[in-house]
Amino acid sequence: MTDTFSDRLVTIFGGSGFIGRSAVRALAQRGWRIRVAVRRPDLAYHLQPLGRVGQIHAVQANLRYPDSIIRAAEDSDAIVNLVGILHQSGAQTFEAVQAAGAGAVARAAAHAGASLVHVSAIGADAKSESIYARTKAAGEKVALEVVPKAIVLRPSLVFGPEDDFFNRFAAMARFLPALPLIGGGHTLFQPVFVGDVASSIVAALEGRAKPHTIYELGGPEIKTFRELMELMLHEIGRKRMLVPLPFAVAKLQASIFEMLPGKLLTRDQVTLLKMDNIVSKKAEREERTLKAIGVTPTSLEAILPSYLWRFRRAGQFARPTA
Q1: Which residues does the chain have with pLDDT short of 50?
Q2: Which phi and psi angles does 36 have, rounded to 5°?
Q3: What are the Cα distances from residue 214, in Å, to 143, 147, 176, 259?
Q4: Residue 239 CB neighbour total at 10 angstroms
Q5: What percent helix, strand, coil does the chain show, rounded to 5?
Q6: In this structure, what CATH number is given to the domain that contains residue 72?
Q7: Domain count, the chain
Q8: 71 in a structural domain
Q9: I need a labelling partner for 268 at 20 to 30 A (CA). Which of 57, 88, 96, 146 fits?
Q10: Mind spelling out the 3-state secondary structure of 51-70?
């Protein structure tokens, strides 16, 4: 661990989430003092062992209440906004969290005189049919307008030990005889390791990324939805039918699923799957990628076995030792 930045404070909004945990760990290793701003600080205590005593602490903030955001950002040298949702629920709407909320965080960063790293997603598009994608684009726009030197990071599908994608489908494969391939399974993804996303956040905060720039973060491989399912099934040692599901049928099913607890699938998610989720050629040409900020992308095969082993048939495979 280095003490290079031990006098600097970063406030991470949404720091207790999947990407947040890796970001907190990476920043703690670099010696940053870390304030984690979350709706429920009591649910962020598990982050404290990731750093030295007193290095990491949690405060209360809700993106729907600007005053709480201003208080959480006070005296910060840098702000990281990781808050995002996969589906809407009650007052937690895409507009409230990913658009208006992003604006509130940006204004708090400007008020504190802090730099800003805003984490969005590949597919953010103001003209998209998807509400998720439109509000992601709106969040990027306001972040760059309010804090002109802000850096935006757009990851593709993020994978790692606590991801929602591979863990969810691996769990489904334990009980279901078949898995659906929405739209035929042709959608392209460029999965990026959560640790690499965390490293890119560190790079942005420490001056290794260009200000007022949108970076697109993808891993070393581009795979179809079908190929990702096949890779997951191989890792857990199970054979399951992969059944193509037309978008129209998937949207009809999603209209039912989104009404149930857990929202296994929503119509907006089906809409998102109509577009490929990969780093654009323009971002590659303009050097707005992981490699451009000094991060070497990690492959799926290097990480998936380390956490999908628990979904394997009992006794079929030993737990990886490395």
Answers
A1: 1, 3-5, 315, 322
A2: -100, 115
A3: 11, 13, 40, 35
A4: 8
A5: 45, 15, 40
A6: 3.40.50.720
A7: 1
A8: yes
A9: 146
A10: CCCCCEEEEECCCCCHHHHH
